[in-house]
Design goal:
This protein is α+β, with helices and mostly antiparallel strands and about 240 residues long. Helix content is about 40%, strand content about 15%. The chain is built from 8 helices and 7 strands, in the order H-E-E-E-H-E-H-H-E-H-E-E-H-H-H. Strand 6 and strand 7 form a beta hairpin. It is globular and about 50 Å long. The structure holds zinc ion.
């Protein structure tokens, strides 16, 4: 993996997020460290719709400048959030932030905790954190460090109360796969809860086993993402330019 590949992968993640309807206007932001760096990261330029993102126009920013003024080409909330998280959370090499509808709906429920309803839910067993202290937009240097404290080792997903979600991963493929399954699981939650019937949850020991099986499943995220890249290569190759 080199910078060009990382740019192509991140651009593909934006385009697929738009295809799946998980974007919000021209807001929301994804970032990815350059391969081999612990501080240089790619970020979407302010105002660009996810469906038009190109690999070459992703901004290259430096987390060592966290605390400084945002680059005018970057969305300020994106700068304040991603610069501090890349500085403070080594396992968050890729950070995806969306307001995707089903997950955000769950983030708006008082005291919500993800239930182990099905096989896909178990993927998130013990790997989810909850921020229940919405404090307005990320327009200063306080929110990044506060959210970084929630991202303990092994945590991939944060439900941002009254706001949206944040997913982190080692690679773009891994983080995108997580984002995709999170929204599927959230959709299932909303459907199951909408019946008004009692939920049947999976016991902790089985959920933990199933989570481990998910994480050890050979190349699950990579195979998924490789197909998404192939579809874009056929249908909208400009993403890679
Ligand atoms: Zn947001």
């Amino acid at each position: 993996m080199n910078e060009a590949e990382q740019r192509r992968h991140l651009a593909a993640a934006f385009r697929w997020t738009a295809r799946l309807g998980l974007h919000e206007g021209v807001a929301n932001h994804f970032s990815a460290l350059l391969p081999g760096s612990d501080h240089q990261f790619l970020l979407n330029p302010r105002g660009r719709h996810f469906s038009r993102m190109r690999a070459s126009e992703l901004l290259l920013l430096d987390a060592q400048q966290a605390g400084g003024e945002p680059d005018p080409a970057a969305d300020p909330t994106a700068w304040f959030l991603h610069s501090h998280l890349h500085r403070l959370v080594p396992h968050a090499k890729v950070i995806l932030h969306t307001h995707m509808p089903y997950s955000t709906a769950l983030a708006c429920l008082d005291g919500f905790e993800l239930q182990m309803l099905d096989q896909s839910s178990c993927r998130f067993f013990g790997r989810v954190a909850y921020d229940r202290n919405f404090g307005g937009m990320f327009l200063d240097d306080r929110e990044g460090p506060r959210l970084a404290a929630l991202l303990a080792d092994g945590v991939s997903t944060v439900f941002l109360g009254s706001h949206g979600v944040m997913v982190v991963g080692e690679t773009v493929a891994e983080a995108f796969d997580e984002l995709y399954y999170l929204e599927r699981v959230a959709q299932l939650h909303v459907y199951a809860m909408s019946t008004g019937q009692r939920l049947m949850t999976i016991p902790d020991d089985i959920a933990e086993l199933t989570c481990r099986q998910w994480l050890e499943y050979p190349e699950g995220a990579e195979l998924h993402f490789a197909e998404l890249l192939a579809i874009l290569d056929d249908e909208e190759p400009a993403y890679a330019s």
